[in-house]
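Renewal narrative, Specific Aim 1. Our central claim is that a sequence can be written position by position from structural information alone. The example that follows is taken directly from our test logs and has not been curated for this report. It begins with the C-alpha cells describing the chain, in the order in which they were read.
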C-alpha cells in the first residue's frame, strides 16, 4: 500500500508541472549562448590562440582582473568569459527547475548539465596546463558539443508543445525504424566530430602552423581523408533520415521542422567543408598567420556541424515522444507529463 501511495504521490507531482514561459525562454537562451560558446571556442582554435592566456584557472595570475584584450588574448579570454556565463546560467536553470518543475528526471537532467559544464571547463583547463595536447583538445571539442545538445534538449523539454499531449502519434512500426536510423546517424556524426576536431587540433599544434612535428600529408591522410569518407556516409544517412521524416510524417511539425533544418544545414555544411579544405590545406599550408577567410570558413563549418548534431538529437527526442506506444520506447511514462494548463 505504501508503494502504491508513493507512486500515486509522484504521479500527482508530475501532473502539477505546468508550462512556464519565462523558464522555457531562459533554457532557450542558455542553449543559444552555449552555441555562441562553441563559436568562441572555434575562434580560439582557428586563430591559434589556445595558449594566449597560458595559465588556468587564473588569467595571467588573476581570477578577476581583466587582461588587455589584444591579439590572441581577446579570443582565449573571451572564450573563458562566455564559458563562465554559460556555467552561471546553467546553475540558474537547475535551481529554477527544482522549484517549478516536478518531473524528477528533469531535475536530475539539469543538475547533470551543471556537472557537465563544470567538467567541460576542467577539461579545457587541463588542456591549457598541459600545453594543449591534441587528444585533450579533441575531447574538449566533442564534449562541448555534447553539452550544447543537452542544453538544447532541456529547452525542448520545457516547451509548451512537449508538455501538451501529442496530437498525432507514430505507429510502432514507423517509430522504431526512424529511431534506429537516428541513433546510427548520431553515432556517425560523433565520429565525424571527433575526426574533424582531431584534424584541427593536430594541424594547429603539430602541423605547419605549429611545431611542424607532423608533416602536412601525414595529418591529412590520418585524419582529414577519414573525415571526408565519413562525411559521405553521414550525408547519405542524413538524407535518408530527414527525407523519411519529411515524406512519412509530413503532417507532424515536430518531426518535419528538425528534418528540414537538417537538410538545409547539410547543403551548407558540404559547401563549407569544401571551402575549409581549400583554405586550410590548399591555400593555408604556408600561411604564418591564419587569414580571415580561413577563420570564417572553418568556424562556420564547426558551427554548422554542431547545429546538425543538435537537430538530429531533437528529431530523435521528438520521435520518442510521438511513438504510438511510449512505454515500449521511453524510459518514463509520457502520459504522466501532460500539462494541466
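The sequence written for that structure reads:
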Amino acid at each position: 500500500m505504501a508503494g502504491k501511495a508513493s507512486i500515486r504521490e509522484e504521479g500527482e507531482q508530475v501532473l502539477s508541472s505546468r508550462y512556464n514561459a519565462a523558464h522555457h525562454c531562459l533554457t532557450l537562451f542558455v542553449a543559444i549562448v552555449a552555441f555562441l560558446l562553441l563559436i568562441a571556442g572555434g575562434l580560439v582554435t582557428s586563430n591559434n590562440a589556445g595558449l594566449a592566456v597560458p595559465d588556468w584557472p587564473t588569467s595571467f595570475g588573476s581570477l578577476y582582473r581583466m587582461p588587455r584584450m589584444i591579439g590572441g588574448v581577446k579570443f582565449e579570454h573571451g572564450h573563458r568569459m562566455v564559458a563562465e556565463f554559460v556555467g552561471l546560467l546553467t546553475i540558474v536553470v537547475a535551481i529554477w527547475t527544482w522549484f517549478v518543475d516536478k518531473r524528477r528526471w528533469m531535475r536530475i537532467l539539469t543538475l547533470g548539465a551543471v556537472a557537465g559544464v563544470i567538467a567541460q571547463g576542467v577539461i579545457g583547463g587541463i588542456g591549457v596546463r598541459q600545453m594543449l595536447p591534441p587528444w585533450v583538445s579533441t575531447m574538449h571539442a566533442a564534449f562541448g558539443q555534447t553539452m550544447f545538445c543537452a542544453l538544447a534538449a532541456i529547452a525542448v523539454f520545457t516547451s509548451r508543445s512537449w508538455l501538451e499531449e501529442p496530437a498525432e502519434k507514430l505507429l510502432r512500426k514507423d517509430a522504431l525504424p526512424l529511431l534506429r536510423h537516428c541513433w546510427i546517424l548520431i553515432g556517425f556524426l560523433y565520429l565525424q566530430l571527433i575526426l574533424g576536431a582531431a584534424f584541427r587540433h593536430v594541424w594547429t599544434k603539430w602541423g605547419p602552423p605549429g611545431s611542424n612535428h607532423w608533416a602536412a600529408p601525414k595529418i591529412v591522410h590520418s585524419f582529414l581523408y577519414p573525415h571526408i569518407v565519413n562525411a559521405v556516409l553521414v550525408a547519405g544517412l542524413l538524407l535518408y533520415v530527414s527525407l523519411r521524416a519529411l515524406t512519412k510524417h509530413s503532417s507532424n511539425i515536430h518531426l518535419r521542422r528538425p528534418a528540414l533544418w537538417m537538410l538545409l544545414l547539410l547543403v551548407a555544411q558540404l559547401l563549407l567543408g569544401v571551402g575549409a579544405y581549400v583554405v586550410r590545406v590548399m591555400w593555408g599550408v604556408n600561411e604564418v598567420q591564419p587569414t580571415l577567410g580561413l577563420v570564417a570558413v572553418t568556424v562556420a563549418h564547426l558551427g554548422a556541424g554542431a547545429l546538425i548534431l543538435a537537430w538530429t538529437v531533437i528529431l530523435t527526442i521528438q520521435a520518442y515522444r510521438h511513438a504510438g506506444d511510449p512505454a515500449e520506447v521511453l524510459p518514463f511514462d509520457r502520459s504522466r507529463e501532460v500539462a494541466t494548463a
